[in-house]
Amino acid sequence: MADPSKTQLTVTAGLASVGVAGTLVALKLWALAETGALSVAASLADSALDLVMSVAAAAALIYAAKPADEDHAFGHTSAEDLAALAQSVFILVSSVIIGGSAILRLVSGGPSQLQAEGRGMVVMGISVALTLALVWWQGRVARATGSRVVAADRLHYLSDLLPGLGAIVALFASSRLGLPQIDAVIALAAAGFMILGAVRIGRGAFDALMDRRADPELIAGIAAIARGWPGVHGFHDLKTRTAGSRVFVNLHIELDGDQTLREAHAIGAGLRRAILAAYPQTDVIIHKDVAAKDGNPGT
Asked: Do the Cβ atoms of 232 and 267 come closer than 8 Å?
């Protein structure tokens, strides 16, 4: 059963993520209207995507948390992957639009002069400060709860600091150095960074939807636990697949055929608890086979 205090912490982190993303979108919309800077537009697009992703992820997590039912025997966690795949497509489209606008401004021969750079830098500075505060809080929650979802969201927001800092540099270069073209260069770099992130998110979601195996390190860790578990003479057919934040594990263990059913059950149940303790995100099914003397397990 989940710890209510830890659940409350993760919910708080999720709500904070949505709240900060919404505030950043509002601030950057104003900054974009004041400055006309493409680098601010890139940062705005990133924050808008954060807001969409935070809301979509929250909705997907609520749906994914629903227990298994007759129509979904393995639960609803694939909703997380569907949301991530849709988000990655959205990121790609936005990145291409921003990158194309930056290229057009660079080749036009006369980049537009930015305006109100000072006010824009103040707004972007506030945005960076808010993001840093969110990252700090998410780090505390991730350490206290062990939530991989919060940890992944924190990593995403850490990467979001680049477009914000880039926008500040572009506005400063325009205001103090008279180099407004740096705005387009930074916007182009930010678009490239976002494209790489979108491809990474999309590939991970696609792999999960196609039932690709789990991380090899996780598989090796489960194998090590099974290999050293008392009463287990061997194991085979260790299979995994991912669905959202869950990893489904199927494992056949080989046991002494002369022991009682109660003893065999105790060995399997203990091994399952050990795997769940080491990897809380897993859903483990253990099959018990008779260890044959010739080395070939019975069925």
From this structure: yes
